[in-house]
Amino acid sequence: MDNGESSSSTNNSSRPWESYNTVFTNAKAGMEGVDKEKVQRIVYEMSKGSKYFQNEERKDAHMKQKIDHMRDRCAKLSSSDLSNYQKVVDRRVLELEATRDLSRIWLHVDMDAFYAAVETLSDPSLKGKPMAVGGLSMISTANYEARKFGVRAAMPGFIARKLCPDLIFVPVDFTKYTRYSDLTRKVFGNYDPNFIAESLDEAYLDITDVCRERGLSGAEIAEELRSFVYSETGLTCSAGVAANRLLAKVCSDINKPNGQFVLQNDRSTVMTFISSLPVRKIGGIGKVTEHILKDALGIKTCEEMVQKGSLLYALFSQSSADFFLSVGLGLGGTDTPRVRSRKSISSERTFSATGDERLLYSKLAEIAEMLSQDMKKEGLTARTLTLKLKTASFEIRSRAVSLQRYTCSSDDILKHATKLLKAELPVSVRLIGLRMSQFLDEIRNSDPSQGTITKFIVQKDSSRQDLDDIESFDIDASNNEGGSLSFGSHETSYGHLKDVVEYEERSHIDSEEVITNQECMEKEERRQVLEGDALLIKHKECKPDTSHSMNDNPNAQNTEAVSVFPQTEPLFWVDGYKCVLCGIELPPSFVEERQEHSDFHLAQRLQNEESGSSSSTTPSKRRILGKEKANSKPKKQKPDQKDSSKYIPIHTFFTKSNQNSSNETQKK
DNA sequence: GGGCGAGAAGGCC
DNA sequence: TTCCAGGCCTTCTCGCCC
């Protein structure tokens, strides 16, 4: 990279493509003999002038600015600074060395050109021909014949076709890939039941035990596993065997395709191996990190990370520097981590750039629905919604909002996403994404006997479930002595809980549809009727003899519901604003709050009936009060705190000083 | 002034 | 001719609160 020079568009060189930082010329398995300059030139020629290209230039300029800034800081370091940082490095090296574990044998399996190989199995006529899975806009993977032309994953199809005019495009079919992936995983499970699936086509296996039990070496197990994978699927894979996952992953790439590489478990072999290894080979170090390390600090190999450790600790955050140093020592994960808990879930779609608001809202609705479906499938509820937009000029914007309650409802997601989008208009957009984070996982991850409560919360349109409510729900349940909240009792109760909830959901949706065209008071009346009816249905299920006619005409049943449910009065707003159960006052215009409030009483009542507990928690007023004070922040929850113990933060890092990266994307 | 949470952005596969 | 994904994670900055 031509450091410090202007961006590529203004480069006066007769070979401007040389400074175009495409990722497509990076060495990847099967691309060894590729004419890199030709690929780079074609990619440059086809990209230049496009909005994508301009955006790349902007990013490139930003990266260069960052590198320059780092260099400046580097130059300002005094020898005593460096000597102090060196002491830190020396100490950390000792500490890290103490954690070195050479007793484990890890195997990394990587399927060869997975999607392309599966497609070739389905259609043998593709064998031997250059082929890519994907379309003209983007390809997901390419077979080895296509890679000889420089075609590779994440490359736009139109560029791939230019590089290889005979390229055959096959559409992506994830169902098929998942099926084959399942077959490979069955094989993996025979060697390590706790194997870590990284993606559809990659996995880590701790084969220490199987090696010992069968008296076989890592190489022999790898050979056997690959052979079983082939006989089960007809697909080839490559494997790496080493003392930790980081090294095993590097090793699996060495003899690709259909090969394996074993790195012996002794320190000097590891250190020799790592000494000349380019940093880019390490998982977690990508294009940007590679450039920063090389151009700001002159670090190209893993060994140099240790040699220049003082600079790393001077310029990077502690966690980033620790990561780099451990890489330089050839250290990596050796334990089987507990199941990674996801932090967010998202859905996004790219389409032709448009500024048509109606179209944008309709895309938004589709995505909200998809996200909601995914969340329900995974049993997740969350309270932070982030809208991501990629504008026609490839600028990425994200706008987030934290909701008052945990939800997975598409209505809720869409409602808030619409507000976020509205604030950005007018804008021409080519991608919309929605992400939900801050999961309700204290409950999700709590003891298994609470599964049905979780299910209840999740399956219910949780849009109206307040955190406080859930917490009290949970606590009440767990405090209930004598195991009256056993799994069995939940099972029994779940049926009618679910029905009530589903009924209520339907009612809610119906009422919402009507509401849009109704006056506020009328809406409130209707809601009262529906609330009363939901309780009634619940009651009917408990007492099957109750008249069936109740359900037929909800609007006519409210008073009936009251009369047949005397021991637990239905929720009713006295004088139109006061809850008869707890006395809290909420004017009719506080529609959402009133809905939540009634939900709370409903849930509490069901809970109490099941557990026999009469413990009652008044729904928190603090949020309601917070609402009244329009600008006050909601009471801080314990967030899903960064679980720093789980993984070394790797992928992204920044210098310790201020970034001062003028955020053009910021602030409107 | 430090701790903390929310929002935004960057980065990797 | 066609003009660059989708998902997830981490860190940073800023502002509020104690």
From TrEMBL:
Residues 106-286 form the UmuC domain. Residues 572-609 form the UBZ3-type domain. Residues 604-668 are annotated as: Disordered. Coiled coil: none annotated. It comes from the Eukaryota. Residues 625-645 have a biased composition (Basic and acidic residues). Keywords: DNA damage, DNA repair, Metal-binding, Nucleus, Transferase, Zinc, Zinc-finger. It is found in: Nucleus. Signal peptide: none annotated. The keyword Transmembrane helix does not apply. Residues 654-668 have a biased composition (Polar residues). NCBIfam families: PRK02406.1. HAMAP family: DNApol_IV. This is DNA polymerase kappa. It comes from Camelina sativa.
